[in-house]
Amino acid sequence: VQLQAYGGGLVQPGGSLKLSCAASGTISSFNAMGWYRQAPGNQRELVATIFSSGNTNYAESVKGRFTISRHNVKNAVYLQMNSLKPEDTAVYYCWMSVYWGQGTQVTVSS
């Protein structure tokens, strides 16, 4: 199973980005999917999780600004990021069950 994450980039404070992650290979449906992020010098932080039930969890730092969603048929997970702040700058990693993507860089800077 391989996960491919994309959608990162450079954005100004207050801007938006949408990250996407799709799984390929021989897979079954995943219960939990989500996103972590890691900024230089910081520990990896769990940003958001979504379950097959549709329930979601968010880090306090992103509540009200980020929205996680999934497409069960495509085995894909998305992260809509609004009102971005410089402190959101990090490499974002998607995960599904025990599988991880390679990371995509998000830089928030003017």
Question: What would you say about this model in short?
Answer:
The chain has 110 residues and is mainly β. It has strands spanning 2-6, 9-11, 17-24, 33-38, 45-50, 56-58, 66-71, 76-81, 90-96, 99-100, 104-108.
Kindly describe this structure:
This protein has no helices and 11 strands. The strands form 2 sheets. Strands 2, 4, 5, 6, 9, 10 and 11 form a 7-stranded mixed beta sheet that branches. Strands 1-3-8-7 form a 4-stranded antiparallel beta sheet, with no helix packed on it. The chain is mainly β and 110 residues long.
Oligomer: single chain
What is the approximate shape? globular
Helix share, percent = under 10%
Average of per-residue pLDDT values: 93
Task: Please give the structural blueprint.
Layout: E1 2-6, E2 9-11, E3 17-24, E4 33-38, E5 45-50, E6 56-58, E7 66-71, E8 76-81, E9 90-96, E10 99-100, E11 104-108
Parallel strand pairs: 2-11
Antiparallel strand pairs: 1-3, 3-8, 4-5, 4-9, 5-6, 7-8, 9-10, 9-11
Kindly list the characteristics that best describe this protein.
110 residues; mainly beta; globular
